[in-house]
Amino acid sequence: MYLTRRDFIKIAAVTGGAVVAGSPVVNSVLALGKKPISLPQYVPTTCEMCFWRCGLIAKVVDGKVVKLNGNPIHPNSRGKLCARGHGGIGLLYDPDRLKNPLINTGARGEANFKKASWDEALGFVAEKMQKIKEKYGAESIALLTHGTISTYFMHLLHAFGSPNFAMPSFALCRGARGVAFEVTFGEDVGNPERLDLQNSKVIVLIGTHLGENAHNSQCQEFAEAVGKGATVIVLDPRFSTAAGKAKYWLPIKPATDLAILLAWINVIINEGLYDKEYVTKYTTGFNEVAQAVKEYTPEWAEKETDIPANLILETARILGKNKPHVLIHPGRHTSWYSDNVQRQRAVAILTAILGAYGRPGGIYLSPKKKFEPVFLSEKDYPDTKPELNKGKYPFAGEEGVTHAIVRATLTDEPYPIKGWFVTGTNILKAMPNQRDTLNAVKKLDLLVAVDMMPYDGVMLADVVLPECTYLERHDDFFTVKERSFGISIRQPVIQPMYDTKPGWWIAKELGKRLGLEEHFPWDTFEEFLKNKAEAWGIDYGELTKKGYIDFPESAKPYFAEGEDYKFKTPSGKIELYSKELKEKGFDPVPKYTKHAQPPEGWFRLIYGRAPVHTFSRTTNNPSLWELMEENVAWINAKEAKRMGLKNGDYIVLVNQDGVRSNKIRAKVTERIRPDCIYLVHGFGSTSKLLRRAYLRGADDQQLITKYDIDPISGTVGMRVNFVKITKEV
Amino acid sequence: MPKYVMVIDVEKCIGCMACVIACKKENNVPDQHYRTRVVEEVRGQFPHLRMELRSELCNHCENAPCIDACPTRASHRAKDGTVQIDRKKCIGCKACILACPYDARYSHPKGFADKCTFCDHRIKEGIKPACVETCLGKSRIFGDLEDPKSEVSELLRKYDASVRLEFAGTRPRVFYIKKKFAGGL
Asked: pTM for the whole thing?
């Protein structure tokens, strides 16, 4: 599995799974009687500093990871890593890591931790789980989870008898986009998104701030398109890095994005700029859309958005003229308002009428390859009560809705939730309305956290189970659906440090103590992976050496000229008008919804990403903390002058419910509209065990006490909070 | 002798900071010190704004003030034409740090001056500097200007290039192309 750089370069010529032999020690140096110098070893694996999951190659010297490089053959990294990817070393060697199992000896949430053995901690958890099962039923244990660890704990909970899990990635992030694209095209746009950016002639970014949001291959393609002269149109109340690359920066009034999208559709249809052949061949419901958008003229949109009608018209014509090589970026974090799905539907409809789906420069098609699923065990899961994790939202995804779990915990409806597993997610920083979360936590009989760092949410737990980092463990294969299909491996680069364990091991050991051994039939996870590789006909040895195996024949990014294609929608066509939505009582074509604007003297709180951090997960990482120790509050220069604020002054933000933020420095800038305040998400940690991140900067989520819910998907709207600035820190 | 240069395509820098940290890890640069940085410059007033992002590093000047200022010849021109520091000869006097008009050097906690080496240890292996390898935007391009077929040669034939503080007469080997702002370096 371990190999030197030279061996790695040779790999292209290696067939089969030959093991690389040879001592890593330079013998000639030994002969001189000096301290032996070890040759570096290079181990390919998969990154998890964010959820793009790039292929990386770790350079290891004397058992220490000294450098991480992008794997050239992995399509998500293409030989490059972002800042966070390089900063993985900081996570591995962060002295604040969780090192042992911990049991809270104080009241709930007091974090009065004592060290425990794995046996003691797992025994404690198993006993509490059995008690909850006896009293309320197994379904009363829920799982809030994110990342690769989800696989093992979803399996454990299913085996135990609970279907109730939720991932923030749906309701708090990508969910609305997924629903909108599924309804329109029959499938989600993918993760990573199937965007043919490198061939786009026009790129529209709606709040998406590529560059600051450093999704590796997407940023690579964006820069390439910019270099080739693509016209970039950015709708953002803030002059983002991407706006700095744009020909058109449209500083839109927050919450009005749907107005511009509808006006663009209006102009493109009115002026006959849509792709008529494509619309006829592949879509249904065009006439209904044409009828519905008649009222949404550029002049109307100007009043809503503050963007001049002539600019709306001009940009619509640019989109029409360059069709189909246009990319309306569908975004990722789309949990903004109560009409998330409808706004994303407008993105999908615009993409479709420009003929940009399945065409160069637009959204490319999924690769054609499928492997039969290989389950963690063959044993069936027990029957359960109906799940409550999707709330009452007809289009809620399989990933579940986090606030449905919180709501059920608070109200005992439709049945009580008495235990939470929290794995790989920081519930206080990810979920809106921290008061609800804390009140729900108070009602629990058991709260177990599994993570690598003592994040805010971990500090609430009764039992903390320390997972080792992605550089120290095996995980399930990643199936990568880029232009072609591929498989990426995660394997340990070094052995786990301290008394930490891989997620699969923790789930399995807990399973054993719950009498669920039969659900965990493999001794090591590598044994499972080898079986899976065999079932899929993949050379496991080759995968461990290369890190990634591509199936180039699976690529079929674009429609052939005049090709017939059956979309996975009820009609088999792109549904511009959605019968599915209509049947469930929702608008079949998006209608504009007006959202409240901040009253005089208040600002809308908006938030986003920085290239060197992943949410709250990296704010304590020494390598990344150094580059950005705390966030700042972006405030428009004129507004700041009016209030007598200078750049760098400490301020406190107070929201409409009287919640005060931690103190934060003001960034006085021309780069933002006067009606909003922008924060980078994830700062202001309240965990004392995160010694670098503790109380550095302000927490946007703390100020998001109010949230909208999209009735279609259950995704939330987190951009509905207003804040005031006070200089009393 | 090769003529190693770096070309910075300002348009393609997306400010991701990958270069900064890749450099730190590759070269074991101590905490709070950097061998390269990304500079963000914004001009104009809301909503009429323009922005330029650009990487800055040691220019490996052909007429290098740091070499002139060094009393021990620790700062020197290496055989491959790059400007390097011999740590054994460095007495930590900091004269070079003051002489450099580009703020490219820092005083290493172990007592010697330190700066970008163009990753000469990697060049010797035939691989690109760490910052170039990881640059997401392919904004940093490295190569030999003596080779007319190299990408850097092609770019410098195709585009007007500028160097930082041209009036200083240092003849830098880091070139900036597609700049938005006149001057500003």
From this structure: 0.95
